[in-house]
Amino acid sequence: MFSTLLQVALGGAIGASARYLTGVAVMRAVGPGFPWATLGVNILGSFLMGLFVVAAAQRGLTGWSPLVMTGVLGGFTTFSAFSLDAYTLYERGLAGQAAAYVLASVLLALAGLAAGLAVGRGLFS
């Protein structure tokens, strides 16, 4: 149990650091405004989750799930930040952008997961 907890903690540190660095890079590239970084990490993280699920199932990597799925990808993606970003857009009077952001986040994250599953099935079958 303790080694699993250490895997989750290590993965979480890696994922959260990657999310932070992505946010910094996106802010430098496009400036403040639309929450592109959060949207991007949620889509990419969903894709990687789908890819890993297939790899884990077909390649016997389920022992890596605490590190990768709960830790790295759980730390990398975040719907708490998504919720804050959506509400902040709404509070700024940008209800249309807030709605577009919510819709894009949910649909594209689902599409990312489906794409990851498809790619994983192609690579690992």
Structure, explained:
The chain has one domain. Helix content is 86%, strand content 0%. The chain has helices at 2-30, 36-59, 65-76, 79-91, 95-124. The longest helix is centred in the C-terminal third of the chain and has 30 residues, at 95-124. The mean pLDDT is 94.
Give the C-alpha Rg: 16 Å
- Main sheet? none
Number of strands: 0
- The helix-and-strand class reads mainly alpha
Strand content: under 5%
State the helical fraction.
Answer: over 70%
The helix-strand sequence is: HHHHH
Total separate domains:
1
Number of helices: 5
Poorly predicted regions:
none
Average pLDDT, rounded to a whole number, is 94
Q: Span from first to last CA?
A: 31 Å
Shape: globular
Summarize the structure.
The protein has one domain. The protein is built from 5 helices and no strands.
Ordered list of secondary-structure elements with their pairings:
Blueprint: H1 2-30, H2 36-59, H3 65-76, H4 79-91, H5 95-124
Helix pairs in contact: 1-2, 1-3, 2-3, 2-5, 4-5
Keywords:
single chain; 125 residues; mainly alpha; 5 helices; 0% strand
